[in-house]
């Protein structure tokens, strides 16, 4: 496994086509995770984009979560949303889904071929239906030439998943587990329970597990067992609370509840390290970290130091537009 900058991949034209050079040579399909956005939301930051990721698995390009600006981040790599085969959503919080409308809308506006498959927990279809409904005026106007537009709904297909769902997408296998981001499973308007999901992506014998947002979870430990890479959220509780107080965007009466939420529904560095150790993963990649105002270098020691209390393996702090490969040797 190696960590490298995606700018080299962009220069090589990697994301201008869903098929990488190594896959074309039929040696070993690429298996690469890209952190498009690493900032925990929902408050936007000037330095980093909100949670979104890209998985290249052989011939497939998959977006995993689609925070605000996901399409823009992909474009910064030289990518085109027409190349995206599928989107997986972990849960229905705006910082993980706000960019989906842009992906769907841009694919429709550019007449992208094929159908975008969208996977997510219950409620995903309702959300996508809302996005499609918001495009009604655009579909009527088109390019103003009197030509009838293709209905936006023709370009998407939605699949709702629950914990335990498994699917095969060509050579890629995807498993979902329900995690602990919600203490109580919220009911949707139709009465069904929603969920927050973690995903394990397996190509030949190589695996990448993505926690999404979660607190400590035995189900996620089981899902991640033996993964080459664990992409985990992480949070510095006190720093975030201090930032909230300093910026006055939360009522003082809500601080106690937010503290409980952060500690129970998210992973501190120590908890992320424990998850990696319990699952015996090859490498831990930290993302979704929210920090108090100031340079990242001021928070990095706390993030790494907390992890090292429980996990001594390879650990990377993801930046926007960085990539993590699971090499061919891992499949042996």
From TrEMBL:
<dbReference type="InterPro" id="IPR001279">
    <property type="entry name" value="Metallo-B-lactamas"/>
</dbReference>
<keyword id="KW-0732">Signal</keyword>
<keyword id="KW-0378">Hydrolase</keyword>
<protein>
    <submittedName>
        <fullName>Ribonuclease BN (tRNA processing enzyme)</fullName>
    </submittedName>
</protein>
<dbReference type="InterPro" id="IPR036866">
    <property type="entry name" value="RibonucZ/Hydroxyglut_hydro"/>
</dbReference>
<feature type="signal peptide">
    <location>
        <begin position="1"/>
        <end position="23"/>
    </location>
</feature>
<dbReference type="InterPro" id="IPR044094">
    <property type="entry name" value="AtsA-like_MBL-fold"/>
</dbReference>
<feature type="domain" description="Metallo-beta-lactamase">
    <location>
        <begin position="49"/>
        <end position="261"/>
    </location>
</feature>
<dbReference type="Pfam" id="PF12706">
    <property type="entry name" value="Lactamase_B_2"/>
</dbReference>
């Amino acid at each position: 496994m190696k960590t490298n900058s995606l700018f080299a991949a962009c220069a090589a034209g990697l994301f201008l086509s869903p098929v990488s050079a190594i896959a074309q040579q039929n040696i070993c399909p690429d298996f690469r995770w890209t952190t498009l956005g690493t900032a925990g939301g929902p408050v936007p930051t000037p330095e980093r984009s909100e949670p979104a990721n890209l998985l290249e698995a052989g011939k497939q390009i998959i977006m995993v979560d689609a925070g605000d600006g996901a399409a823009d981040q992909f474009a910064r790599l030289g990518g085109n949303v027409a190349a995206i085969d599928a989107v997986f959503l972990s849960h229905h919080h705006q910082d993980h889904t706000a960019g989906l409308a842009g992906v769907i809308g841009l694919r429709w506006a550019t007449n992208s071929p094929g159908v975008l498959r969208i996977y997510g927990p219950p409620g995903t279809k309702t959300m996508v239906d809302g996005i499609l409904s918001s495009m009604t005026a655009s579909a009527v106007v088109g390019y103003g030439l009197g030509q009838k537009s293709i209905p936006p709904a023709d370009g998407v297909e939605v699949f709702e998943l629950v914990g335990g769902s498994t699917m095969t997408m060509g050579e890629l296998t995807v498993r979902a587990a329900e995690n602990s981001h919600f203490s109580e499973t919220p009911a949707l308007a139709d009465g069904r329970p929603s969920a927050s999901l973690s995903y394990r992506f397996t190509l030949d014998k190589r695996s990448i597990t993505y926690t999404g947002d979660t607190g400590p979870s035995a189900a996620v430990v089981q899902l991640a067992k033996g993964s080459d890479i664990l992409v985990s959220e992480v949070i510095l509780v006190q720093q975030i609370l201090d930032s909230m107080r300093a910026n006055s965007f939360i009522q003082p009466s809500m601080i106690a509840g937010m503290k409980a939420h952060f500690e129970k529904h998210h992973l501190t560095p120590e908890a992320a390290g424990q998850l990696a150790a319990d699952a015996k993963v090859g490498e831990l990649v930290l993302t979704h970290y929210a920090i108090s105002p100031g340079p990242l270098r001021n928070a990095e020691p706390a993030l790494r130091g907390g992890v090292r209390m429980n996990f001594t393996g390879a650990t990377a702090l993801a930046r926007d537009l960085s990539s993590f490969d699971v090499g061919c040797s891992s499949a042996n």
